[in-house]
Write a structure and sequence with these properties.
alpha/beta; five-stranded parallel β-sheet
Length: 209
């Protein structure tokens, strides 16, 4: 089995590799820190499963997920993210991820999730599964935050968590001007006037805690 780990933190990649080496004897690993490297690796060698972080420098994880699915539609992808399920899980699953986990999940749960998606299933936590079941038949397409692009949504969540435009630009390896443009579009789409109201909107809609 070949596992591709896509995360910009070297220590985390090493930890995942050590954990999965014990759980999957003989597994081979590829490691990348950004979208471009991931696509390059998959172009050279097929993978059996990919572990993908949402937050990557440059091109975001959701954008990369779309490209991975276009290039390798049969590649099972498990999103492993620091972001709460309420923030990105539904978006990731809609784009084509086979599963979504937070990085706070137990190691044995990660192994269980990988086994499940390798067998052709999907993995979500019991809490998220209940929320998805309750949402069946409901139309969420008209909520303002559903109109945000994936990158705008990510910026919105960071603003709502108290990050400044400069801090967000640094974390995402983008210019302050680019983040400011995203913020302006977020304000317009949400119908709010400032960052404080973005935070209020996110809390009211349970997008952040």
């Amino acid at each position: 089995m070949r596992v591709l780990i896509i995360d910009d933190h070297a220590i985390l990649r090493r930890g995942l590799r050590a954990l999965l080496s014990d759980a999957f004897a003989g597994a081979e690993f590829g490691e990348t820190s950004n979208a471009e490297q991931a696509l390059e690796q998959l172009g050279k060698k097929e993978g059996d499963v990919a572990l993908l972080d949402i937050t990557l420098p440059g091109k975001g994880g959701l954008d990369l997920l779309k490209e991975l699915k276009a290039a390798r539609p049969r590649l099972p992808v498990l999103v492993l993210s620091v972001h709460l399920e309420d923030q990105f899980a539904v978006r990731a699953l809609k784009v084509g991820a086979e599963g979504y986990m937070t990085k706070e999940s137990a190691p044995e749960e990660l192994v269980k999730a990988i086994h499940k998606i390798l067998d052709g299933g999907r993995y979500v936590s019991p809490t998220l599964a209940e929320k998805l079941a309750l949402s069946v038949g409901k139309d969420f397409t008209r909520t303002p935050h559903e109109t945000l692009s994936d990158r705008e949504y990510e910026v919105m969540c960071r603003i709502a968590s108290g990050k400044t435009v400069t801090e967000i630009a640094r974390e995402l390896s983008l210019s302050v001007k680019t983040i400011s443009s995203h913020r302006a579009r977020i304000l317009k789409k949400l119908g709010v006037r400032n960052s404080a109201e973005i935070t209020q909107y996110a809390i009211r809609n349970q997008l952040v805690i």
